[in-house]
TrEMBL record:
<dbReference type="GO" id="GO:0046872">
    <property type="term" value="F:metal ion binding"/>
</dbReference>
<keyword id="KW-0460">Magnesium</keyword>
<dbReference type="InterPro" id="IPR000086">
    <property type="entry name" value="NUDIX_hydrolase_dom"/>
</dbReference>
<dbReference type="GO" id="GO:0010945">
    <property type="term" value="F:coenzyme A diphosphatase activity"/>
</dbReference>
<protein>
    <submittedName>
        <fullName>NUDIX hydrolase</fullName>
    </submittedName>
</protein>
<dbReference type="InterPro" id="IPR015797">
    <property type="entry name" value="NUDIX_hydrolase-like_dom_sf"/>
</dbReference>
<feature type="domain" description="Nudix hydrolase">
    <location>
        <begin position="32"/>
        <end position="165"/>
    </location>
</feature>
<dbReference type="InterPro" id="IPR045121">
    <property type="entry name" value="CoAse"/>
</dbReference>
<keyword id="KW-0479">Metal-binding</keyword>
<feature type="region of interest" description="Disordered">
    <location>
        <begin position="1"/>
        <end position="28"/>
    </location>
</feature>
<keyword id="KW-0378">Hydrolase</keyword>
<dbReference type="Pfam" id="PF00293">
    <property type="entry name" value="NUDIX"/>
</dbReference>
<keyword id="KW-0464">Manganese</keyword>
Length: 196
């Protein structure tokens, strides 16, 4: 996909964000939980990298794993998944919300804990100066978008998670394992950008 084709495809995705947010009041304790993550594309770079993070080694869940910036919706988000994704990216990476052009919200996927996770797709028009929240993020990875557009990189594998052997998708990028929900979300992005 050329940069021109990508920009054209992104322009056709806009406008769906508000219609994709979960309806109703913020989930009460014990009800279905909702989270949001940001798929940030640095479109000013030739290889249009996707911004990923390595979670801090001391995190209680998914320590050291590669993921997209994001987290559970908070009451201040008022059930707005776009607000939540931008807030979390700001908290984790120091990415100012006003530097992200939101393109769309992809369909929600459930993680291994049953949380509905909404991927928010946005583009960055300039390279940010990262300010990492050290307890949550140990490093930023910039992976070329073309890597995620190649179907052969999505490999079905068995992995142990919480003591159980599970079926999952695994991607190997230069020795970095991108797997589970993050790999599934990136495959959904591939489908959105390369419709059949």
């Amino acid at each position: 996909m050329t940069p021109e084709q990508l920009h054209h495809r992104l322009s056709t995705l806009g406008g769906a964000a508000s219609a994709s947010a979960p309806p109703g009041p913020f989930p009460a304790p014990g009800e279905d939980r909702v989270a949001a993550v940001l798929i940030a594309l640095l479109t000013t770079e030739p290889d249009c990298p996707v911004i990923l993070t390595r979670r801090g080694a001391d995190m209680r869940h998914h320590a050291g794993e590669i993921s997209l910036p994001g987290g559970l919706l908070e009451p201040e988000d008022n059930t707005d998944v776009v607000h939540a994704a931008l807030r979390e990216a700001d908290e984790e990476l120091g990415l100012p919300p006003n530097t992200v052009q939101v393109r769309t919200v992809l369909p929600a996927l459930r993680n291994s804990s049953g949380v509905r996770v909404y991927p928010v797709l946005g583009t960055l028009t300039q390279r940010p100066a990262w300010r990492l929240q050290p307890t949550e993020v140990s490093e930023v990875l910039e992976v070329p978008l073309s890597f995620f557009l190649a179907e052969q990189h999505y490999l079905p594998r068995h992995r142990y998670y919480r003591g159980e052997l599970r079926d999952t998708l695994v991607m190997d990028y230069g020795g970095h394992a991108i797997w589970g929900l993050t790999a599934r979300i990136m495959r959904e992005l591939r489908r959105a950008l390369l419709p059949a």
